[in-house]
Amino acid sequence: MGTRLLVRQFVAQLKDVGGDVQVVADALDRPSREVRAAMSYVADFPAEIDADIRWAARIRAPSSVPTRACRACPR
């Protein structure tokens, strides 16, 4: 389809608005058929999408590994 949006982005938006396809289409400035196509993809490949959502949550979570202070960064 080539929207440059990830299916998980459609999923998150749909969850936020209670599954209203037209609201998501308007918010993302995409045709509603693309939102429905994403929903269809989720139905066909739920494990893949669930894994992607979990991965995205992990990389967004703050790391428990301490990082060195950046010498060039303002304090």
Could you explain the architecture of this structure?
With 75 residues, the protein is mainly alpha-helical. It has one domain. It is 61% helix and 0% strand. The protein has four helices and no strands. Helix 2 packs across helix 3 (32-44) and helix 3 (32-44) packs across helix 4. The longest helix has 15 residues, at 46-60. The termini are far apart.
Short description:
The chain has helices spanning 7-16, 21-28, 32-44, 46-60. The protein has four helices and no strands. It starts with 6 loop residues before the first helix and ends in a 15-residue tail after the last helix.
SSE topology sketch:
Layout: H1 7-16, H2 21-28, H3 32-44, H4 46-60
Cα radius of gyration in angstroms: 17 Å
The stretches of 5 or more residues where confidence is low (pLDDT under 50) are: none
| DSSP strand count | 0
> Helical residue percent?
55-70%
Number of helices: 4
Class from secondary-structure proportions: mainly alpha
Q: Using the alpha-carbon principal axes, give the shape.
A: globular
Major β-sheet, in short? none
The total domain count is: 1
Strand content: under 5%
Order of helices and strands: HHHH
Mean pLDDT: 85
